[in-house]
């Protein structure tokens, strides 16, 4: 499946795809780096979040107002959480809960036009509206049918209420947010967000794909669950040589 967002999240890519992706990345320029309680980073982002909040209601404003507060102190009511895109309000979650939900998704395939329930969810959130406006004012509908591995990871966090999973459609920006917020490393942990570069570089800017770690197999491979892999959700064993790094959500201690 291809789309205007080829560089957002891919399983296997060609050199030509990477060239297209680089152009898209330049257009997005930090486009879709959404993070729990910090959905839009930076001064310009704060301005566009406020603009989006004025259009999209008090929930977007509530999330924006919490962007400079820690996840431990920020709270949302059930109604606010659901309007923001969560199934449940953010809470302390064990990584096994996220892995269990991811395993239930294995085998789910794209529908007509490459659409999935993960697209449907992402497009419905005020976060998508805010980032689409910030990143050039394209229609939120442009996310429909786009590469969706990062939407899948984000959906897992929203469904379970994991703190600081990050909401994203662009793998490079998602990884950059983890690094900038001090949640980035090189150790595979169950439930961590794993970022890949098929060319085996160590550069965040070269990231092609993302998934969730199930376990480190202890033999140079990691078991993962990934969306947008052969146009569906799959459980994979991946070589660590293709892994750029890991993002660590705030799981229950």
Q: Roughly what percent helix?
A: 25-40%
User: Biggest β-sheet: count, sense, barrel?
Assistant: 6 strands, antiparallel
Number of domains: 1
Write down how many β-strands occur, each being a DSSP E stretch of 2 or more residues: 8
The averaged pLDDT comes out at: 77
β-strand amount: 15-25%
Please give the alpha-carbon distance between the first and last residues: 39 Å
Q: What would the principal axes of the Cα set say about the shape?
A: globular
- DSSP helical segment count: 9
Structural class: alpha+beta
Radius of gyration from CA coordinates: 17 Å
How do the strands line up in the largest sheet? 3-8-4-5-6-7
Order of helices and strands: HEHHHHHHHEHEEEEEE
Note poorly predicted spans. Answer: 1-7, 12-73
């Amino acid at each position: 499946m291809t789309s205007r967002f080829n560089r957002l999240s891919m399983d296997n890519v060609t050199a030509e795809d990477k060239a297209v992706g680089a152009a898209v990345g330049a257009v997005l320029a930090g486009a879709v780096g959404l993070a729990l309680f910090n959905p839009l980073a930076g001064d310009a982002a704060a301005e566009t979040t406020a603009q989006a909040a004025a259009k999209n209601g008090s929930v977007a404003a509530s999330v924006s107002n919490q962007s400079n507060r820690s996840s431990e102190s920020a709270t949302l009511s059930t109604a606010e959480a659901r309007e923001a895109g969560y199934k449940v309000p953010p809470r302390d979650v064990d990584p096994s809960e996220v892995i269990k939900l991811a395993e239930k998704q294995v085998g789910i395939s794209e529908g007509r036009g490459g659409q999935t329930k993960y697209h449907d969810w992402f497009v419905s959130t005020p976060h998508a509206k805010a980032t689409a406006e910030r990143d050039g004012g394209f229609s939120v509908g442009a996310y429909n049918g786009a590469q969706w591995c990062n939407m899948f990871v984000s959906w897992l966090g929203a469904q379970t209420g994991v703190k600081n999973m990050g909401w994203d459609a662009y793998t490079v920006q998602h990884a950059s947010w983890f690094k900038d917020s001090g949640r980035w490393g090189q150790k595979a942990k169950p439930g961590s967000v794993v970022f890949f570069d098929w060319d085996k570089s160590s550069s965040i800017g070269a990231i092609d794909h993302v998934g969730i770690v199930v376990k480190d197999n202890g033999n140079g491979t990691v078991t993962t669950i990934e969306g947008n892999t052969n146009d569906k959700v799959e459980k994979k064993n991946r070589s660590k040589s293709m892994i750029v790094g890991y993002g660590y959500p705030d799981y229950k201690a």
